[in-house]
């Protein structure tokens, strides 16, 4: 079977009009099954890591005079390599336009553009760090079939808790606005709370329990209100945690209670594919990308 | 059916003595069902957001000379708009006095008062940030029927855990008092622990893991006691988290175990309204505001 | 029935040799059932709060000249009141010696001693903050019968998780020692890591996510190791939280699965005293102090 | 029965070629059953604690002149004691080479090497803190049979959640890289974000909610982006917590649902060894080290 662009689900009926060498190239670049295809993906991920690392190192002033030249050369090598990879994907994909508009297609393009833009505009080369997003491909390469079900569970739990999480976020944002304004009125500009936006920034720093200390209350009343804000921030973290956990527990349970379509047995493990009593298929195979 | 004031539960038997145009105005302002009523609510929320934003921006010193004039004009436009909205609600509500004393009624009044007070007293205009509380209305506008059950679950879990949460809060407050006094005795005023209230403030900053660093222990013994306080604060957050989570899990389970009144089947999903086997109504419809 | 000293469990067979007025005094001081006894407890708690508050205020330098005299007088009034309360408890308790050695007896003594000691030794008066521990009595006064079962559940969950919590604490302490020593070797005394104990203090500040910033890494390697320590501290908080939560969920479930001794029905609510089907007593009444 | 080296599982069929005195020495050093063997382990743990403590104290500049000489002498006594212990273990182990390569064997060697190396290289003596890892032996000494099952549960839950935890860690690392680079572009070197690695360090400090404050955003846009990073860090801690908790709950449940092989009863407690109805053995004894 020919290679498929990454984000599409298997559509067995789709005709494949690619020539033989494009199929083979697609098998190499998009595939996961042959040793060569896996080696290509592993090499790609290593190159991405190295490239991100070199962009980071390039900004260290003390290393600039020593490695500056080498790093700039390396960057062009990486850019050329990623450009070839991008063109290869465009050519060998069964539906090139579909790939180009997919998440991975856009990331792949964005990870080479900054280098070319840096020829004309200064500063854009740091955007190359966007290449780190290409590493997300790693999940596809290393995540085995049995992991898919587990990751699904997490997504399912988060989706099911969406309403509760929204309620929580709006509550936190309201708290931050109210405490920020209060502190602006209490402490005022001469104690570092120069404006309401700055005070709201202080409230975020405090309620999230980060606590830089760049702005901190000076007056007794300010310290009292800040203490209340801290205890709020300390305590309400229990709410999203409880929401996500209860969602996960419920997703687990629901799956365990899925009855076998043949014999009706429930209590299957989350990663079970077949009924443990009669062997019937419990749920259709997860949509995986097959070449 | 005529519009109802926001916080009242549906009382079908209540006679409606409002004239036709007041009913229509009520449908527009309090309603959620017609496109026009929804558009009114969305516009209101956008105005609230803009108004809060402009109050915040007004306090930024560097923007004052540029936008100062525009912002002051905008504020009066918002105030007039909110005043008209408040009067409209008072006029068109089925029970005006009931609305005026409700949570939303009080917030609506408080969100216009500061502007008028600022004509006489300086500084009160910052209280306009209270307008942000009007955004809570957003939940009513966007929260769909199926979300109500989820939000109920969260409230139910928190209510059920009230006793345990109180125990936790009293424990934290005692810890904060004891550690604060200890540090005042150990470190003393010359290391920044100028009084017991200040030391208690330090203890709150430390136990909530905020850690500004504006006051920090200097002596070896102080550092040792502070380390114990930190590990306490780090560890006991597990307790409220556990309480809320266990409460949520139990609320879920209890709901799942609710037996169908007709066929006795249990194990319904939290958001199920009808029995999945026989279709009987599982629980009465949630109290929602219908026009 | 006569009053009982607080910490003893009901022993109906114990003979009561107290005279009538001592019984009546005991009913007032230790009792919870009559309005007068409750009023006594509420007044006591208010006095404790006021006393703790006055000790705290006394240390504020700016208030010293204004309220200093009043506060010192107040302190002696509180001390005399608490001394009378202590003597009253000693006299009216059914088993005075048992009360004197109980937790509350020791706290009651410790909350009056510092005032007398301060006549001879300077500084001991701040120990009066220990009076805050007397507020724990509040639980006894306000905690109603139905709360007892809930609090039991929390204690049961924590006790059941003792082994796992110990494993976690030893892990955190080892991490703190290892990271502290590493940073001492990497950063050294000239970047603030003056000794291994100081470095271990830094590690506690970091792993508990408090982060004062009084000591922070300066070298690139130090920042890298510190980042690893932070991510460790950030992540492993999930472990005690998971332990406590799973313990609570299990304690709930175990209770729900307790079969009725008469009809065998399980699935009772945690706070159920009687079987919901046949009405049989599910478990003996919680040990409460009855006068 | 003769002593067994610590990390090996019981292999009853393995022949024992050790002479009588080596067996007796092994019983003393590796054993846990006789009072003498327990006393040896307790003494060893006390010595480890003292040794770690003395290494820590040695680095405190103010104590150096007073205790310096004593501490250096003590260190050599500890080193000799641990060397003898190591040799004794090598001699008396049933399979010396197996012990030497085991975790405990390597730790035991590493905890004596630095002292000898310090004769030639300066600074290596601080590595003696690695001795703290020997304290892990403490679990073996004090953890009773009934705790093993509980600790297993924790390990089982963490192993089962491996995939989800990896997803979380990669997400956090990506966030840290993206936010770090963003802040480098926004704030730049003149506000303390001197390079991308330094900015990533700042992002770790912020997202883990440690918040030293050694680097903090100065520009309005920087503060906005930092606020988003903080709220992210504050919120996503719910995810690993939920994962670990759900894993623990499921491990508990799975164990509780293990059916008795004889009568089929489920719902046994996690620490049950025998069926509570028919007494049949539920699961084979945990692999413990028996002499």
Summarize the structure.
Chain A is mainly α and about 290 residues long. Chain A has helices at about 20-30, 35-60, 65-90, 95-100, 105-110, 115, 135-140, 145-160, 160-185, 195-205, 220-235, 240-255.
Explain this structure to me?
The structure is a homotetramer of 291-residue chains. The first copy, chain A, is built from twelve helices and no strands. Chain A has helices at residues 20-30, 35-58, 64-92, 96-101, 103-110, 113-117, 137-142, 145-160, 162-187, 196-207, 220-236, 238-257. Chain A folds into two domains: 20-143, Voltage-gated potassium channels. Chain C (Four Helix Bundle (Hemerythrin (Met), subunit A)); 154-258, Helix Hairpins. The first copy, chain A, is flat. By secondary structure, chain A is mostly helical.
* CATH fold-level assignment of the largest domain in chain A: Four Helix Bundle (Hemerythrin (Met), subunit A)
H/E series of chain A = HHHHHHHHHHHH
Q: What is the total domain count of chain A?
A: 2
Largest inter-chain contact set? C-D, 46 and 56 residues
Summed up, the helix count of chain A is 12
Q: What sort of overall outline of chain A do the alpha carbons produce when their principal axes are compared?
A: flat
DSSP strand count of chain A: 0
